[in-house]
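Backbone-to-sequence.
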């Protein structure tokens, strides 16, 4: 892993990654470090890193105080915020009429409030710098619901983020801030037990699940694509195209 740094904190780009303790989030932290970024990583149970250029901030992303601590840590310790990856999210698959008030509060808390609070603070800092990039991880279930995979709360919350992505992209296009999303299919990660992979893979036209590296590569593409904003990049084995 690269530990490239420069003499001044203000010369080295800084990324914030939410949901960073495992799975895709942890892989994104590694990938940004390999590109020479300093990283502020946050999740409920994240542990400190022995890499001085990775700062771990533990907390519930649904709580506005967590967002404040994450962004203020980035600015105080590293001097800037260049990229925000809204990776934190939860999925609760239940028939619509069986969702509880707690399910609704939990999903909207993490997926919507979690997106709102930290994105608002990050963009505020990016405005001062005159540039920045926000990318959010959503889901292709928003575009193409699957029979047998009840996903109304995923569509409600992640669909909202897709719409907000386009709105923010246009609002900040002339201010040097780009806003994009990556829309995955079902990805091999700690969320899915190996014995479920065959059935889950069959839900995609390509007949298999995606790898975490597929999502990381998509995020890094958007990071290095200065003329791309307002894009919902589908990385879903053809799921959003149809079945």
């Amino acid at each position: 892993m690269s530990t490239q740094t420069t003499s001044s904190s203000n010369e080295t780009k800084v990324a914030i990654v939410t949901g960073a303790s495992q799975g895709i989030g942890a892989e994104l932290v590694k990938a940004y470090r390999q590109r020479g970024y300093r990283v502020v990583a946050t999740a409920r149970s994240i542990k400190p890193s022995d890499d001085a250029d990775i700062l771990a901030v533990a907390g519930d992303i649904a709580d506005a105080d967590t967002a404040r601590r994450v962004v203020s840590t980035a600015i105080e310790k590293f001097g800037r915020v260049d990229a925000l990856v809204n990776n934190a999210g939860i999925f609760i698959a239940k028939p619509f009429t069986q969702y509880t008030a707690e399910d609704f509060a939990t999903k909207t808390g993490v997926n919507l409030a979690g997106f709102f609070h930290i994105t608002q603070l990050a963009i505020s800092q990016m405005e001062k710098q005159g540039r920045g990039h926000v990318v959010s991880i959503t889901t292709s279930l928003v575009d193409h619901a699957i029979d047998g995979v009840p996903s109304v709360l995923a569509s409600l919350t992640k669909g909202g983020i897709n719409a907000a992505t386009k709105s923010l992209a246009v609002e900040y296009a002339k201010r040097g801030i780009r806003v994009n999303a990556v829309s995955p299919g079902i990805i091999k990660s700690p969320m899915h037990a190996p014995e479920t992979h065959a059935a889950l893979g069959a839900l995609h036209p390509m007949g298999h699940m995606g790898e975490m590296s597929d999502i990381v590569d998509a995020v890094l593409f958007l990071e290095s694509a200065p003329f791309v904003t307002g894009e919902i990049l589908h990385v879903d084995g053809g799921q959003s195209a149809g079945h």
